[in-house]
């Protein structure tokens, strides 16, 4: 007598790959390759996820899922101080450093961003905003001339009037826009 037990067919859930497009504390929005947006949490109390990370998600209910794993990163931007580290963005192809005519910007912070981007071989664009303020714009443009001489593209715009000149720089890029504030002393780093 032969025992021909058939094992029940189990519907093993399939993992879906996607990219983190937004982070709200421990909740993340994932865009799948099919364009579906899922609201997800990380399994357990693990953290360490940044916008731009490629992840594997286990769908749970329609529109929701659990992040099972983070795929290897090409790069990671983070901010740190003596007490903690905050992940900012992963897998970017371009860093856009946005500075304003007023208030004045920190050249040291721009330098730090450039070092981090060069270390990872990431394209850089420096955007000078509020260029409609003519007198102050001239001074700021002169301060950025050194960066142009070093080969970094600089774009002068007035975001309140027209941002169209920025659009071609965003085409086919995964860009991180870094707003340079003179009062903020925690520069970005790369890993």
What is the number of beta strands? Answer: 12
Main β sheet profile: 5 strands, mixed, barrel
| Morphology | elongated
Overall radius of gyration: 22 Å
Number of domains: 2
Unreliable stretches covering 5 or more consecutive residues:
182-191
Question: Architecture of the largest domain, according to CATH?
Answer: 3-Layer(aba) Sandwich
How many DSSP helices?
3
CATH fold-type name of the largest domain? Rossmann fold
Per CATH, the class of the largest domain reads Alpha Beta
State the strand order across the main sheet: 1-2-3-5-4
Q: What percent strand?
A: 35-45%
The overall average pLDDT, rounded, is 85
User: What is the SS-derived class?
Assistant: alpha/beta
- CATH homologous superfamily name of the largest domain? P-loop containing nucleotide triphosphate hydrolases
Helical percent range? 10-25%
What oligomeric state is this? single chain
The first-to-last residue Cα distance is 63 Å
The ordered string of helix (H) and strand (E) elements is EEEEEEEEHEHEHEE
């Amino acid at each position: 007598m032969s025992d021909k037990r058939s094992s029940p067919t189990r519907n093993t859930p399939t993992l879906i790959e996607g990219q983190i497009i937004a982070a709200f504390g421990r909740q993340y929005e994932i865009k799948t390759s099919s364009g579906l947006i899922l609201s997800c949490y990380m399994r357990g109390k693990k953290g360490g996820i940044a916008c731009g990370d490629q992840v594997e998600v286990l769908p749970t209910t329609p529109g929701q899922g659990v992040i099972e794993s983070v795929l290897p990163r090409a790069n990671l931007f983070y901010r740190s101080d003596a007490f903690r580290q905050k992940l900012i963005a992963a897998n970017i192809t371009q860093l856009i450093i946005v500075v304003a005519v007023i208030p004045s910007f920190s050249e040291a912070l721009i330098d730090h961003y450039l070092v981090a981007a060069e270390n990872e071989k990431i394209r850089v664009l420096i955007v000078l905003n509020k260029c409609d303020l003519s007198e102050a714009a001239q001074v700021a443009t002169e301060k950025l001339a050194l960066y142009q001489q070093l080969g970094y593209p600089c774009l002068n715009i007035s975001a309140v009037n027209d941002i169209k000149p920025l659009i071609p720089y965003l085409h086919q890029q995964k860009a991180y826009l870094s707003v340079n504030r003179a009062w903020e002393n925690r520069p970005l780093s790369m890993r």
